[in-house]
Write a structure and sequence with these properties.
Length: 114
């Protein structure tokens, strides 16, 4: 029961994170680079899945499924702790990032709406 609730929570959180990353990437990337940047992001995101599956299979075969799940859980917790350590929340809002990107490109950002 607890495992099911945690898996559902992980799916929800993962979806929100992925959507936020896509919106930020599309907002900050110039139109002429959208395809290249999106393709690169997909290769990085999806390219690691077969590697993770292979490593998980080797660990499960060698040390058991329980150990493989502990290794996976440890990796997720480590990623969470690193995210907190790097203060990802302090990066800024998308509007701030977008305005900074436009200033760097020599464009004037649009006026903020109320």
């Amino acid at each position: 029961m607890v495992a099911s609730a945690l898996l559902a929570l992980e799916g929800l959180v993962g979806t929100v994170i992925i959507l936020n990353a896509i919106v930020a990437r599309q907002t900050l990337t110039p139109l002429h680079l959208q395809g290249r940047v999106n393709t690169t992001a997909r290769v990085i995101a999806w390219g690691g899945s077969p590697l993770g599956a292979a490593v998980g299979g080797v660990v499960a075969e060698s040390y058991g499924v329980r150990t493989a799940l502990y290794v996976c859980t440890s990796a997720v917790v480590l990623a969470f702790v690193l995210g907190l350590r790097w203060r990802l929340a302090a990066i800024g809002r998308l509007a701030d990032l977008s305005a900074a990107a436009e200033r760097a490109a020599g464009q004037e950002p649009p006026a903020a709406s109320a």
